[in-house]
Amino acid sequence: MPPASISRIVSNPAKVPDSRPRCGWASTDVEYIRYHDTEWGRPSRDDQHLFEMLVLESMQSGLSWLTILRKRENFRRAFSNFDIGAVAKYNAAKIDKLLADPGIIRNRKKIEAAIANAQAARRVIAEVGSLADFLWPIVRNRPLVNRWKSLSQVPAATDESRRLAAELKKRGFQFLGPTTCYAFMQAVGMVNDHLVGCFRHREVVGKK
Question: CATH no. for residue 130?
Answer without folding.
Answer: 1.10.340.30
